[in-house]
Specification:
The chain is of the alpha/beta class. Helix content is 44%, strand content 21%. It has helices at 4-30, 54-71, 86-92, 103-113, 145-148, 161-174, 179-182, 192-200, 211-218, 223-227, 250-261, 267-276, 290-298, and strands spanning 42-48, 74-80, 98-101, 116-123, 129-130, 132-137, 152-155, 185-188, 206-210, 228-233, 237-238, 241-244, 278-283. It has a 6-stranded mixed beta sheet. Strands 8-7-9-6-10 form a 5-stranded mixed beta sheet, with helices on both faces. Helix 2 runs antiparallel to helix 12 (267-276), helix 3 (86-92) runs parallel beside helix 4 and helix 6 (161-174) packs across helix 13.
Length: 311
């Protein structure tokens, strides 16, 4: 015969078996629901022309790319190109979604590919344009076409306004019909920096580059202002502007444009702009490229058909 204690213990065990499913059910109800998975960001390839050396370009634009990524549903990846024309080639092959175009590559891409300009920086001095410069050493004695005959000329690239279109226009104005005959040597350095230093260091006698690069370098190298002389300048053209492929989703286009145009309205954006050397980004459209289109027409260069390889 079972004792009272044994009976009570049995009742407790039985009650536990009865209550266990209920307890587990309550426990399950108290668990926090699983956190929703973050939507993966769309990969977005952004091209940069080789205005400076590759390391300087990446250092300058990487914070901007990260900022755009945080403000949009995009994973922005920078592609720094080895030469200016690669931007056109990469757009044609579908490898780029957008690029910061120079004025010539921008005009070329508008005409050939139908890209859509969105925004460009307004620099700390309030400008949003640049111009080309042709320069020589002050001690070269070069002042005109006659002084250039038999000398060495340094272009930048056959897809730049400052480093190609300006010299062609200048040669036409001063009576040089064929620069390949007039100069002992004419070559393409590949970057504005290289052209400037080639002339400064005597590798070339005359060169062409953009003023923004020239004066940025002059801040840390006084030789540029002390030893180089400006012979002529071009009309002002848009600073390097962000333009996107024509078939980019309109919602992505709007997010990109807003992210840039509103950068100066938050602290993080202002800090990045300061390091970038800009006050803010301003809206840009095809009409801003009219000086480049006109320059190209004046030297009979058809941008719709233009294809090139640097010599």
């Amino acid at each position: 015969m079972m004792s009272g204690k044994t009976v009570r213990n049995g009742i407790k065990i039985f009650a536990l078996f009865i209550l266990l499913p209920f307890v587990n059910s309550c426990s399950d109800q108290q668990k926090a629901p699983p956190e929703p998975q973050a939507t993966p960001k769309t990969q977005f390839y952004l091209g940069l022309i080789p205005e400076q050396d590759l390391f300087s370009q990446k250092e300058r634009y990487a914070p901007l790319a990260r900022y755009i990524s945080t403000k949009t549903e995009l994973n922005v990846e920078i592609k720094i190109l080895s030469r200016y024309g690669n931007i056109i080639d990469n757009f044609i092959s579908g490898q780029l979604d957008a690029a910061f175009f120079g004025s010539f590559t921008g005009a070329l891409a508008i005409r050939k590919l139908g890209v859509k300009p969105l925004a460009r920086p307004q620099w700390l001095d309030g400008t949003s344009t640049y111009y080309g410069m042709i320069f020589t050493r002050k001690d070269s004695g070069i002042k005109d076409a006659a002084g250039m005959k038999g000398k060495r000329f340094a272009f930048v690239d056959m897809a730049t306004t400052a480093g190609w279109l300006l010299p062609l226009h200048y040669f036409k104005d001063i009576g040089i019909e064929d620069y390949r005959i007039w100069f002992a040597e004419a070559y393409f350095s590949g970057t504005h920096e290289d052209t400037i230093y080639d002339v400064l260091d005597g590798k070339a006698d005359v060169g062409a580059a953009k003023n923004t690069v020239f004066y940025r370098l002059a801040k840390s190298d006084s030789r540029l202002l002390n030893e180089l002389q400006i012979l002529t300048t071009s009309p002002e053209v848009p600073a390097n502007s962000l333009a996107v492929r024509k078939d980019l989703d309109s919602s992505v286009k709007i997010k990109l444009k807003n992210a840039l145009l509103q950068m100066d309205q938050d602290e993080q954006g202002r800090q990045i702009l300061q390091k970038f050397g800009a006050k803010k980004f301003i809206e840009t459209n095809e009409k801003d490229y009219e000086p480049v289109f006109t320059y190209a027409d004046n030297v009979k260069l058809d941008l719709h058909k233009y294809d090139y390889r640097n010599n």
